[in-house]
Design goal:
By secondary structure, the protein is of the alpha/beta class. It is built from 16 helices and 13 strands. This is Glycosyl transferases group 1.
Length: 398
Amino acid sequence: MDLTVVVTFFPLPQDRGDPIRVLMMLRTLARVQPYTLFVVRRPETTPEQVTQLRALLPGVTVRDFSASPYRLNRLGPLGRYQESLRDGLPPWVRTRYSQDLHEALRTRTGAGLAIGEAAGAYVRDTSLRWHWDKANVLATSSRQDIDEAAGVAHHLRAHYLARISTRFEEQALANATTVSVTSEEEATRLARTYGRTPDFILPSCVPQPDGYAPRPLDRRLVWLSSFSYQSNLLGLRRFLAEGWPQLSRAGFTLELVGSGLTDSVRDSLTGHEGLEVVGWAPDLRPVLARARAAVVPLWSGAGVKLKTLTLLAHAVPVFSTPVGLEGVPPTDAVRAADTPEGLAAALLAADSAQLDRMATEARRLVRERFSEAHFADQLVGSLGRYGMLGETVPHEGP
């Protein structure tokens, strides 16, 4: 059976959660069946990165496309919003949309795998039988943005985005033969919002780091997230205001690591005692090797958090809100608290022996529940049951 895979965000570099999940899926599928990959380049994607992706996916035909420019871009935000509304696409989805890619899909037959929310733009007007792999339910996550909006203008914008996101999601679901989500909680949200039960749940997983030897420093904490994602930044600011002071007084330091750091955000964070604003780190291993524990302060968001799994894979104990632990089973590798003060208290109460046990359990948990091999078995088995794959070869490991 011909298989066509569509990705709307180039998976290199691996600088945030979505590319990690996407590349893992692409590599897993490449090991069991040839397919054609249609991928939208980021504005900054280089020819070398396209060549690198092809090398990572032997036997896969990779066709890369540029996103289509806005036709009404000369009118600024007003034109872009008008165009996205007319096309039935949220603005962030329209930014990743390629008309050339969509046209090329019209000649394809067989099964189609749309990976990620924005890939739902392509499940209409083609002859492919689509499976849509969703990281989160947009209707829920966009409503959370309304609650987080500050000021009248941002509030109105959030309402608009919630309406168009829900309409887009509803139409894409209507055209998708099967759909998967990342957690039981997301399955509940999908059923509650659209009356549709996902065909299967595919939790996100992470590769275990090669050549990694933790050497944690006492009272050294780390925060790992994208600075450009509003929920991450709001959660961090709340933690710094309400929970960090008591940790700082106790001699803790906190490294802030992630993509999307701007000068204005950096300037707004540097006034806190004990904070080290690092930003993007191309290799996380030396950063996470010195972390005694991590804090994941999130009060909004949906789906399994790749940052949480990445920290656990590096044997870093995780202290998080329940939102940051969605999809992670109860385990000694993590501690949960609902408030910044609760997170701080849990960190202050954890002694060295407890943190060592948490680190050991973290590695075991990822190896048994969130490893690439486990992910591959779930992905291939689930897609195979729904007739999305042809004859496959046995999985031979990462």
